[in-house]
Amino acid sequence: MKADTDTSARRPNQRPELAAIDDETMRGVLRKMHLIRKFEEAAEASYMRGLIHGTMHLSIGQEASAVGATLALMDEDYILSTHRGHGHCIAKGAEPARMFAEFFGKENGYCRGRGGSMHIADVDGGNLGANGIVGGGLPIAVGVGMSIKAQKLDRVAVVFFGDGASNEGAFHEALNMASIWKLPILFVCENNKYGMSMDIGRAMAVPNVADRAVAYAMPGVVVDGNDLPAVAAVAREAAERARAGGGPTLIECKTYRLRGHSKSDRNLYRTKEEIEEWRSRCPIRRLEAELTAHERFTPEALMTIEEAAQAEIDAALDFAKASPDPDPKDLTRDVYAD
Amino acid sequence: MKADTDTSARRPNQRPELAAIDDETMRGVLRKMHLIRKFEEAAEASYMRGLIHGTMHLSIGQEASAVGATLALMDEDYILSTHRGHGHCIAKGAEPARMFAEFFGKENGYCRGRGGSMHIADVDGGNLGANGIVGGGLPIAVGVGMSIKAQKLDRVAVVFFGDGASNEGAFHEALNMASIWKLPILFVCENNKYGMSMDIGRAMAVPNVADRAVAYAMPGVVVDGNDLPAVAAVAREAAERARAGGGPTLIECKTYRLRGHSKSDRNLYRTKEEIEEWRSRCPIRRLEAELTAHERFTPEALMTIEEAAQAEIDAALDFAKASPDPDPKDLTRDVYAD
Amino acid sequence: MSTLTEAAVESAVRELTYAEAIREALAIAMEADERVFLFGEDVGVYGGAFGVSGDLVHRFGTERVIDTPISELGIAGAAVGAAITGMKPVLEIQFSDFVTLAMEQIVNQAAKIRFMFGGKAKVPMVVRLPGGSGTGAAAQHSQSLEAWFAHVPGLKVIQPSSPHDAKGMLLSAIDDPNPVLIFEHKLLYKTKGHVPEGDYRVPIGKAAVRREGRDLTIVGSSIMAVRTAAAAQKLAEEGIDAEVIDLRSLRPIDFDTIAASVRKTHRLMVVYEGVKTMGIGAEISAMIAESDAFDFLDAPIVRLGGAEVPLPYNPVLEKAAVPQEEDILAAARRLARGDA
Amino acid sequence: MSTLTEAAVESAVRELTYAEAIREALAIAMEADERVFLFGEDVGVYGGAFGVSGDLVHRFGTERVIDTPISELGIAGAAVGAAITGMKPVLEIQFSDFVTLAMEQIVNQAAKIRFMFGGKAKVPMVVRLPGGSGTGAAAQHSQSLEAWFAHVPGLKVIQPSSPHDAKGMLLSAIDDPNPVLIFEHKLLYKTKGHVPEGDYRVPIGKAAVRREGRDLTIVGSSIMAVRTAAAAQKLAEEGIDAEVIDLRSLRPIDFDTIAASVRKTHRLMVVYEGVKTMGIGAEISAMIAESDAFDFLDAPIVRLGGAEVPLPYNPVLEKAAVPQEEDILAAARRLARGDA
Ligand SMILES: Cc1ncc(C[n+]2csc(CCOP(=O)(O)OP(=O)(O)O)c2C)c(N)n1
Ligand SMILES: Cc1ncc(C[n+]2csc(CCOP(=O)(O)OP(=O)(O)O)c2C)c(N)n1
Ligand SMILES: [Mg+2]
Ligand SMILES: [Mg+2]
Fold it and tell me: Where is this region: Disordered (chains A, B) (predicted)?
């Protein structure tokens, strides 16, 4: 965030949230958003072609919340992710090649092929794992916060979860504990309007998940989750407060998943129009449009970033395919640590 | 509630909450509050003398919330109670004799001696049970509400729980479901300032449990839990709303337990002064004082009610002691219904 | 229950999938009894995560096929509350792994309320639990946790292996005045089999002898009953005559059927997908080993259960973690030929 | 770890209660390692529901002895989060029955994280679980649920029966890089026994032969090990020479010690408080029945477990629901004299 030294970020008429992100950082942002999108498109294609088994949950359309919420994080900060976690994982710095390898169940995947899409973790990179249990990461984040505090580390933890997860008891218990102990946690709700097929309007009686922050005397902020600079600004402020001992924040990113819940989704619970309408709010194109409007990047420069991301993904996919399978003899390895 | 025909309830200068309770009803209220107090004192004494085993949780000092919250209920309405449930049970109309018999583990106790203090239920009387699990009754109440709605019954369910219980995930899930489905439920929190040894101020970051109602778009009301007419008024309004299809209400009765959490409590977490201070706010004496001040009852009339209650409790205790023990051969009876 | 009408004759050849059979049972029960309702996450317009509820919401409306928020503890408790006040809820826990969030209500409340209340209440609820591995869903979506519940007095636990039994046992479960947990293996949902029309019941607590044999008894549960039956065919070709018992009911266990078989064959093997240690095979083995059938045993009792490992994502490892037909064959050969 | 100092010599006669022994282990671990902290409901100034933590909050402060809200799922998850980021949490679940609220975090997260992450994380947490009946606390406060966890790969489960083992095994558990559940029987808390000073370890996974004998092997766990030892004294007076094994560890189970004993005595009985069906006795019986120790058995394996009933409140029924010394005596006589 070198906004002071970067003149291009000071172009006139930019909103402060955009200006706060200098060009170098912005290039990283764009790269990651493209990586996420293209990673998931490639994963989807591999799945369709029967190269990947199991299931997967795509976050296409939600890239801004993943990248925005983690933009203020340091390498040693933590994230806890969800079943829809590819974006978080890439945003926190994971290598797509090892993520693909995990998808293909390969020995050099992030989890040595044992976890798959729903459990990708990159512990060294501060990603404490996707989670197959809706809301499962929320209480774990509390412990991470306790750990940070006890060890007097200058770190924060970002825990992602969905709108649906906010109806789990785990949400309530976690936010309460984080609040009473003033833990350095960002609770980032990616409200994509549905918990599987359940419209948030049927699943809860309040319009915003962030409205629930009141119950924990915690700041609750609603932000346009498809607006990267806005998400980044809100997260930065929350992270600063957390580091300063000000405790947790609940951030709700209003967004939308353009794909079905998982591969078995027939989209019976929503309309084509709704999907199309949200497609037009694509967080990547929207950011690119704003950047070109302010002449911070030329369309060509943007295209270069996108193409580089595509090349990276293509190479990553090749790497994964060429990777070795686990040895079945190792079946029960790593059940216990010694 | 025959306030229209009862002139004594129309004495001047009474607050409306008091005036709303006619003399006959008030006699019943006083009787029940005394029954609860004396029941628990007798239970405590029996316990001290080693006549009862296990543990018990006394609600001495909390009688107004139990009796007040159930005053507007019909016989066929439901309550769900807690580990500190003797008051709720008597308030809903249970016989102290069969409650004592349960304490003594006798065959004619409410649960045939199988449940004990923590599980007293009087299903025929609409009491769906005390609960040994903090917050355990909350989700059950949701199902009761669903049942009432599905069967199109003109009933409500009152579920009691403590301040401590409001930090359980069950609280969150239950209130959310009750709200989205507009179920006829009164969530009555008896906030006695402590969850065992945990001061509510350390256990949650909001000053009132009722503040959490916002998270469910549900009315949340704080009431002086030691003020019977006030509790009754709030509960009556909530019950009327529930019956009219207006959905649930969260009612928080601020009260205090004058005894320890259970018999093993050494009261290390609170001061004698605090206990004394609350003792002076005894809900029974307070109500009596207000009634005599307004000349609705003479001290002698009040004494008669109290003495009758004592006699009822004495007889109940004798009944229980003389009751038969279960036959050990019946050990596994009633595990399954056929 | 089932009467021999023309429909029944026609139905003698009717095939349904396991998922369809369950749906049909639900529809029959809901049609017959207003108190029956289905609820759970995405059981409505989505049709259930595995398509089991399908179009039921369109047939019975949103008051009787109820989508719930993602609140497993809460919905389990809601089932309890509805059951004790006159309804007959059928709850779907989307993946049985999520029952870990609902244990309190199922074990402390549903299973115990009747007893704790001295017999003054009934808890007629059904919990449907899709479980098992084989779909690449990894460690948190592939468990077989049924053994836990077989340890809990007050509950009944069933695990039908065929469309026929799925329908008949679910109808029995809905009619049962006690909490019944039905574990449905995800890999079975698309398997097909003969399913009679109309209402019929398969009793809870009775195992089924799928194949008579003299050389050894193999008890399999859920999908393992299917794999065992297939293995037994091959064993027969090799001259090994296996008696195959489909367990079907885990609480109560049909001891008599198993013991009678052991008295005949003198050799017992139990096949199950749950983790071997403390899995259902332990109970069956122990039941036999403490009974007078013990004296008939000519060889140690063999348990073929899941490996001591969370379910791996990698498909090769995933298969290696639970008994496959080859494993059953190999173990049965060892047991029958006495080199176990 | 223990060295023979003067203190150790003095400690040879020192007696502590089981609760004190646990408290001492906690103090030693917290003193030795800053990463160790204790948390749970009322573990602070209240000293724990059973007085186990006692004055620890005054010795170590509220940052290391942490009272939590009543949020079992949340605190179990918090333990997981702290453990994977470098701390060594010791969590008290006030009564083991409430672990039903925390199964998700213990079973789906704590037990599986290491494996799911391909070995990239450790989960060094301890969960203390007061359990068992005998205090008149009825069905929701008296369960023995340890068998469930013995079914879960990734967890370790222990159940010390003496103050000595409680201290030594808890210290081992805190040092263990895996999630360890320690089930403490409430009736044991006030029992006294010799407890050495200082740091010493009793290994996880090793049973203890409490009495050697030739006529039959009785394996008991937790308080049943105590009752079994007492019964064995009386049996000796009657001329029955029982070998008594204190199980101590339920996952892993020390098969070798039990099998060696069975090979010697030819008769096996397992005594445990949990519900008989699917209880730990099932696994021990099955382990023996599938091993070569099977050939040494001269009689069916006897399981003496809890009755198939929620724990009743009435004290007579409560006692009748779990094995008492008389029950052990009677069953042992039957087994030893061959009329079982
Ligand atoms: C405890 C639990 N319940 C249910 C599921 C099945 N499930 C997986 S994702 C999902 C929807 C989650 O909705 P939300 O939290 O809004 O996240 P989103 O999928 O929209 O990103 C459901 C019901 C689960 N994995 N875990
Ligand atoms: C799930 C669960 N956790 C913990 C306990 C132990 N316990 C019993 S009562 C209690 C305190 C409850 O506090 P609160 O809800 O405020 O009710 P109060 O006792 O003050 O009436 C605790 C911790 C329990 N019974 N159930
Ligand atoms: Mg969502
Ligand atoms: Mg309280």
Answer: 318-338
pLDDT per position as a tens digit, D73-86: 999 999 999 999 99
Q: How confident is the model at residue B2 (pLDDT cuts 50, 70, 90)?
A: very low
Domain hosting residue C319, numbered range: 208-337
- pLDDT, tens digit (0-9, with 9 covering 90-100), for B214-270: 999 999 999 999 999 999 999 999 999 999 999 999 999 999 999 999 988 999 999
Are C148 and D153 a contacting pair at CB < 8 A? Answer: no
The pLDDT score that the predictor gives to residue B12 is 81
Rounded Cα distance between B190 and B166, Å, is: 10
The SS3 assignment for A218 reads coil
The protein residues having their C-beta less than 5 angstroms from ligand 3 (an ion) are A 162-164, 192, 195
Residues in D touching B324 (Cβ below 8 Å): none
Which of D117, D119, D154 lies nearest to residue A129, judging by beta carbons?
Answer: D117
In this prediction, residues D166-184 reach a mean pLDDT of 98
Burial class (CB in 10 A: 0-12, 13-18, 19+), A272: exposed
What residues of chain D lie within 8 A of the CB of C94, using their CB? none
Residues 90-109 of D with CB under 8 A from C: 97-98, 100-101, 103-104, 107-108
Supply the range of the domain harboring residue B148. 17-322
Q: Check if the beta carbon of residue D317 is closer than 8 Å to that of residue B326.
A: yes
Chains in touch with D (≥3 Cβ pairs < 8 A): A, B, C
Instruction: Assess whether D35 and D173 both reside in one domain.
Output: yes
In terms of Cα–Cα distance, which of D259, D183, D200 is closest to D29?
A: D200
In sequence order, the 6+-apart residues with CB closer than 8 A to the CB of A205 are B176, B179, B180, B216, B217, B218
Q: Would C199 be classed as within a structural domain?
A: no
Give the domain CATH number at C40.
3.40.50.970
Mean pLDDT in consecutive groups of 10 residues from the start of chain C, 340 residues: 49 88 98 98 98 98 98 98 98 98 98 98 98 97 98 98 98 98 98 98 98 98 98 98 98 98 98 98 98 96 98 98 98 85
What CATH number corresponds to the domain at position C333?
A: 3.40.50.920
For chain A, state the CA radius of gyration: 19
**Same domain, yes or no: C174 and C264:** no
SS3 labels along chain D:
CCCCCHHHHHHCCCEEEHHHHHHHHHHHHHHHCCCEEEEECCCCCCCCCCCCCCCHHHHHCCCCEEECCCCHHHHHHHHHHHHHCCCEEEEECCCHHHHHHCHHHHHHHHCCHHHHCCCCCCCCCEEEEEECCCCCCCCCCCCCCHHHHHCCCCCEEECCCCHHHHHHHHHHHHHCCCCEEEEEEHHHCCCEEECCCCCCCCCCCCCEEEECCCCEEEEECCHHHHHHHHHHHHHHHCCCCEEEEECCEEECCCHHHHHHHHHHHCCEEEEEEEECCCCHHHHHHHHHHCCHHHHHCCCCCEEEEECCCCCCCCHHHHHHCCCCHHHHHHHHHHHHCCCC
> CA–CA separation, C273 vs A30, rounded Å?
46
Cβ A123 vs Cβ A63: under 8 Å:
no
Rounded Cα distance between C173 and C180, Å, is 6
CATH at residue B120: 3.40.50.970
Amino acid at D164: H
- ipTM of model over 0.90: yes
CA atoms within 13 A on the CB side of B310: 6
Query: B residues 31-50 near A, CB within 8 Å?
Result: none
Residue B9 has pLDDT above 80, yes or no: no
**What is the tally of structural domains in chain B?**
1
State CA D20 to chain mean position distance.
Answer: 16
Distance B134 CA to ligand 2 centre (A): 5
Which positions in chain A touch D80 (Cβ < 8 Å)? 139-140, 143
